[in-house]
């Protein structure tokens, strides 16, 4: 943070608005007021981030056991992520014309057009040149990103340079993924604020981002199309099984361990009782061994 203060005029202005007006002590110049406000805001952010970790861990462990696809809404700060969550779910999450209006991931249940449930998580915004201390803090909130089945990457189409925002966000995502040594979830680009974007910029974006969906969280335009794209991309690739695999089917048991995520395993007189999430094709081969209360597709 410290190293940013000298060149933070633009930020300072937004932060001042966010802090609620431009009081400013007597004799303080505008830039001094801004710097003081940023300092206050950042120490508040640091405290709040510390408190979030525990709640997040609880939320995440719950989700691992859920069959619902999880979609994380990511994007540059102020792109309209929270507005999009509201447009998709009617959640009533805080929306503000301010940097870092959202300080912790918010998860809501939603439905695809065919009625299948999903969980949608609104995340903390990204910026370029985030001070090192804060990168660390925010990165931990981005664990949500690593666990997602799909990333809905929101871009502000009314920004002067949406392409730069996209690159900055992708850079942060790839760093987060590299830290977790995981595979990046698929990404769906969503250009938001088309009601406010210029025709020229929209034309450039349509040309440069052929797979993107164009929406306005404000007017609702494109939201249904977005829902349909999300449903296509977040189709579950695995299924929950609860089976007893006989001891002479060591081959199947080995495949469950190799290709699936085992939640519980115990040996009984009939075979190995196993609860796991496995690829849909393997679930079909296991169907014959389903337990009475277990379910296979
Ligand atoms: N014109 C227009 N403005 C929008 C649209 N969506 C969001 N906004 C405005 O953009 C600003 C930021 O919206 P948020 O939803 O808080 O953005 P965010 O990405 O969650 O921001 P952070 O949580 O701060 O990272 C607010 O002033 C919104 O009213 C839209 O479709 N059109
Ligand atoms: Mg937000």
From TrEMBL:
<feature type="region of interest" description="Disordered">
    <location>
        <begin position="14"/>
        <end position="33"/>
    </location>
</feature>
<dbReference type="GO" id="GO:0005525">
    <property type="term" value="F:GTP binding"/>
</dbReference>
<dbReference type="InterPro" id="IPR016496">
    <property type="entry name" value="GTPase_HflX"/>
</dbReference>
<dbReference type="InterPro" id="IPR006073">
    <property type="entry name" value="GTP-bd"/>
</dbReference>
<dbReference type="GO" id="GO:0043022">
    <property type="term" value="F:ribosome binding"/>
</dbReference>
<dbReference type="Pfam" id="PF16360">
    <property type="entry name" value="GTP-bdg_M"/>
</dbReference>
<dbReference type="InterPro" id="IPR030394">
    <property type="entry name" value="G_HFLX_dom"/>
</dbReference>
<dbReference type="InterPro" id="IPR027417">
    <property type="entry name" value="P-loop_NTPase"/>
</dbReference>
<protein>
    <submittedName>
        <fullName>GTPase HflX</fullName>
    </submittedName>
</protein>
<dbReference type="Pfam" id="PF01926">
    <property type="entry name" value="MMR_HSR1"/>
</dbReference>
<dbReference type="GO" id="GO:0005737">
    <property type="term" value="C:cytoplasm"/>
</dbReference>
<dbReference type="InterPro" id="IPR032305">
    <property type="entry name" value="GTP-bd_M"/>
</dbReference>
<feature type="domain" description="Hflx-type G">
    <location>
        <begin position="69"/>
        <end position="238"/>
    </location>
</feature>
């Amino acid at each position: 943070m410290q190293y940013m203060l000298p060149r933070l005029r633009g930020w300072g202005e937004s932060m001042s608005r966010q802090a609620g007006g431009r009081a400013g002590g007597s004799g303080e110049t505008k830039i001094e007021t801004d710097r003081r406000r940023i300092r206050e805001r950042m120490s508040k952010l640091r405290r709040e981030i510390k408190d979030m970790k525990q709640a997040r861990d609880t939320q995440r462990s719950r989700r691992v056991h859920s069959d619902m696809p999880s979609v994380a809404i990511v994007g540059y700060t102020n792109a309209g992520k929270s507005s999009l969550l509201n447009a998709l779910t009617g959640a009533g999450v805080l929306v503000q014309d301010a940097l870092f209006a959202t300080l912790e991931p918010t998860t809501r249940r939603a439905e695809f057009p065919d009625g299948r449930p999903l969980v949608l998580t609104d995340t903390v915004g990204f910026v370029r040149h985030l001070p090192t201390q804060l990168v660390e803090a925010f990165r931990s909130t981005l664990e949500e990103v690593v666990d997602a089945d799909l990333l809905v990457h929101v871009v502000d189409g009314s920004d002067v340079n949406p392409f730069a925002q996209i690159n900055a966000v992708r850079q942060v995502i790839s760093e987060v993924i590299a830290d977790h040594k995981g595979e990046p979830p698929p990404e769906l680009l969503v250009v938001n604020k088309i009601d406010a974007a210029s025709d020229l910029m929209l034309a450039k974006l349509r040309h440069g981002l052929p797979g993107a969906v164009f929406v306005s969280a404000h007017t609702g335009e494109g939201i249904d199309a977005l829902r349909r794209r999300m449903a296509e991309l977040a189709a579950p690739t695995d299924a929950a099984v609860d089976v007893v695999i006989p001891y002479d089917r060591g081959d199947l048991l080995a495949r469950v361990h190799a290709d699936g995520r085992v939640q519980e395993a115990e040996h009984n007189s009939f075979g190995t009782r196993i609860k796991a999430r496995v690829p849909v094709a393997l679930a079909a081969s296991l169907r014959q061994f389903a337990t009475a209360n277990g379910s296979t597709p």
